[in-house]
Amino acid sequence: MKHILACFMLLLACQEASAQTIKTTFVSGPGRDRGEGPAMVADGRYDTKWCLDAPFLMPYVIVLDAGEETSIAEYGFVTGDDTQSYPERNPVTWRVSGSNDKQDWVLIDDQRNNHSMGDENEEEYCFQPTFKGKFRYYRFEFIRMAEGTRIQLSEINLHKTAKTAVKTTFVSGTGRDGKESAAMVSDGLFYTKWCIDEPQQMPYSVVLDAGEQMAVSEYGFVTGDDTHTYPDRNPITWRVSGSNDKQAWTSLDEQKFNRRMRDENEQEYRFKVPSPASFRYYRFEFIRMADGTRLQLSEIKLYK
Ligand SMILES: [Ca+2]
Q1: How far is the CA of 56 from the centre of ligand 1 (A)?
Q2: Distance between CA atoms of residues 111 and 275, nearest Å
Q3: Would you say residue 2 has pLDDT above 70?
Q4: Model pTM?
């Protein structure tokens, strides 16, 4: 069960639109012909979108043609160009299937109640199918959106490659040793966590060793295995820095009052490093949590 959960909650990093992104053509989908019609998800542009609120047409089904039998490492949903002003239109429950004849479909991914997409403009969120196969046609069935029935997406991308996770080792962190120590964020297990509530030791910091110098383009925070029961422990304000000697640190990212993480168990949220640079050590400083001073995270992940 644990494994299944971990699999279906895997939110994967995005490839920038590149040679690894498959050129698709739109086959079918619900909505208007032009303007904000479904074909807008496959026109290669982030400033055009598919927007639909027609409960009687649900689930909304989009079919894309990859041109030939193709296997994908991940697929990406790109938010609309005004999702920040009109939030809650991202899908949270959907299914993805593949076919070579548009008759027989093989389910390759099934996401339920996944709220990991943020309400930002033109931001891509990628997911890795749990079943791998070669298909020409890809079908997306959108079953539920964040606030119910209205969906908007600017693109649906298919990617041949995915970003790779970096194997890290724990260097140091705030708090005591033991079962819920900082070291738990780099043991690779979603059911072990770092949990701390020591206001006098804030900001809480953890340093991870990537093993060698590398440019990390994204990092991920995974919520605890009981965050749903014990909410408000996610970080909302934090800093990320890189170093090669653990003395001089260079700021890589800073987030203030970012409430994208939700109170769900073992769910990963990824954040992009705006200007990746090559470092061996990565430091995370947690300045404020949703409810103040208590933090819990099951993993901190780095991606090349
Ligand atoms: Ca862990």
Answers
A1: 43
A2: 31
A3: no
A4: 0.78
